[in-house]
User: What shape does this take?
Amino acid sequence: MTEARTAAAPNGARDASATAGPSETGAPSPPTRRVVQTVELLSRHAAEQLSLARIVRATGMSRATAHAVLTQLTAEGWTVRDEDGNYALGLGLMSVARRAEAAFPLRRTAADAMRALAADRGVPVFLAERERDTIAVTEVIGTPSVPWIRHARRIPFAPPVCREFIAWAPESERRAWLAAADPAHRDRLATVLDAIASRGYSVERLADDSAPMLEALSALRHSPVTDPLRHRLSAMITELITIDYLPDELGENNAVVSVAAPIFGPAGAVIASVVSCPDAHLPAAALRELAAATVTAAESITASLRP
Assistant: This one.
């Protein structure tokens, strides 16, 4: 993901977007976006105190606009300012977040089963929830070794990932998802989706000899590089990923990043998944045991959602 940036007005200049009134046409609101940018930035550095200059650089706001936004957020208790003029999230925002959790009960419902799975199998576990065209990581138990697995991380609901969400979908939705895939991957993806629906889980794997190269490419992708280079690096990473395991492909030593099992909502659609993250080479028997435990955890959560 790349952080959105906007052109900053010269320091001291009036930023018109900061004083614009609310749109009556349904168009995006720049002032609201400034607040969201600021809160998102501070949340990504929750253990730090960020200077105004750093916030200006990261968001692209003018200094005057950033100061105005932070002054209001601090007055509301959503941020705090220390003696050196640095900012962090405040307790007021935590109170809002706790009240908002009532609208998203799955995280609380799934917590006990996820903790039991993590403790029993000795691996990190996370909860992934679908929200329209994205998948969000909403709970993480343990510390996954894969850098992208972190709380609040979002990924597009697009091939070749999110397979456990689409394997049980209606045929029309499945066809649309496959149509968005790289043509070279479509036949394998269709076969893999059938295997996932049959056995009850998906496996994220790496080609056996690609792990060191993938780690190096991932580090480069998250360094200060241009968007074209970042996109090329992402494409190279995708090329190193082998899409799942089919039954006859399991061997004595299988490179397993994660195992995911679906959680079904009351209407029968897959609304989330429980994901175990061994990030290790596993014998076929060990992989099946981990998968069975992950499926059992997902099934218990599904059962708790039934009226």
